[in-house]
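Issue 218. Parser rejects a valid record. Input:
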Amino acid sequence: MPHRAHLFSLRPAHALREVMAEGYTTGKLLRDLLAGITVGIIAIPLAMALAIASGVPPQYGLYTAIIAGFVIALTGGSRYSISGPTAAFVVILYPIAQRYGLGGLLLATVMSGMILVGLAVLRLGRLIEYIPESVTLGFTAGIAVVIAVLQVKDVFGLPIDSMPEHTADKVWLLAQSLPELAWPSVFVAAATFAVLVFWPRLRWPVPAHLPAVVVGTLIAWWLNSQGWSVDTIGSRFSYSLADGSTGQGIPPVLPAFEWPWQRAGGDGLPVGLSWALVIELLPAAFAIAMLGAIESLLCAVVLDGMSGKRHSANSELLGQGIGNIVTPFFGGITATAALARSAANFKNGAVSPVSAMVHAGVVLLGLVALTPVLALLPMPAMAALLLMVAWNMSEAPKAVHLLKTAPRGDIWVFLTCFSLTVLIDMVMAITVGILLAAVLFVKEIAEMTRVTDISQNRKQIDGELPEGWTALKINGPLFFAAADRVFGDIAQLCQQRQGIILYMDGVPILDAGGLAALEKLIANCGRNNTRIFIADLQFQPLKTLARAKVKPVPGVSQYFSTLNEALQAVRSELD
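Output the parser choked on:
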């Protein structure tokens, strides 16, 4: 049963083992090399831009693409996924970086990796399917808005040193600073964005963001040479090496091992490792893990649809967890599968995780050999690139369609997740969104449980019932959210009846709450001298009654295998 094997399998390097077992030829290696080189070139500017948006220098985005891109491909369960920094994490990572510095961010990433490994070991890879679309659409649309707000500063070249924590405060500060906008920055951002919009219409195989960044860089270089000022990676960021040398832009050195908690915190000192800090970071780590699981598994599902192959959900979570545990020890931030880069990987001919490993090598080569060129990249162009990323991830058409066509409960869930993501944070949005969706789902299921009077239904009741007797049919699950209402209504009816027959062949589930409500009803009937005959219990409710050792109460309650047996018992007692 290969389908079930993929559902529940858990082993490191599942995807790589599967490909190798099928036979890995020189032709497949060549296809992986070409795809990996293409995606590696795509990933370099994106990794830098996403690191900057997350509140850390650009080299840490490159470290993430190198280490996480290789480790997750090696150990994961999806053949075509490309992992690295993604836009979805920006809304979580930026506040952590602002408050706890790089050290706190890396420690939270390690913790999230441990949570992902735990999810994989518990075989919870498929539980992600139970998160409703209204929740995922709500927080992805909210993330897109937050990312877009963060780019306004660089698009307009505003002289803002640091941004407030909350989005509303950010918007207010940006609005106050707009009179100080720099037209050269606006021009570079507009030119970059124009290329991003119009390049795909040429239908050339080169991804739009590469020519867009090149155009933006050339314009910025010309403006700077003419005496105008356009901020670049080289002018914005600087570094100092262990030998005492310093420079502008990105250090041309390999990522080095260092304990995450020895990196700088928000105050510039090592963040340290303490139980109190772990507890503080736990909610953020949990949100990172949940979002990483959602992003990576949704990406794998989309790639399955494109390729006709199947991923192993638990093995993919294991790979993502291992990658996020290992990467921070080399300075990399949180990583997960990136849909745009993964789709480009598949479309360019990739056949195995080897292409993702090649992509990591290409980014590594760029870090070592191209740092002088990367320092020329203008900040407004990077911001324009992230604006396009934000628009694409917002899935605005799907969100509008949901608002127009979805039930009211789903709309409220979407709006709640969206608002909380924008106004507060992702931790609150995911928690409240899932809880609200669960409560609304329980409410809808509870409302499906109904009681129908079948006393006059001749298809089910053969002949007249004795005077003072009523037959009721219950349809739907009798669980905590429905049972009190259903049995409460029946209890009121008991006060005016000599007896009732409960026909329960339409009740698939009786939980502890339903059992307690049924026992309460039987006790009520006993006080009112009302007989209650219960007929045709399904297996699960019958098992629940047996485990609770519920027995007939003489003179009050009796149980029958069929409705006809209950009817015969009523008539025989009254004859």
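Fixed in the parser; the record now loads. The first strand starts at residue 83 and ends at 84.
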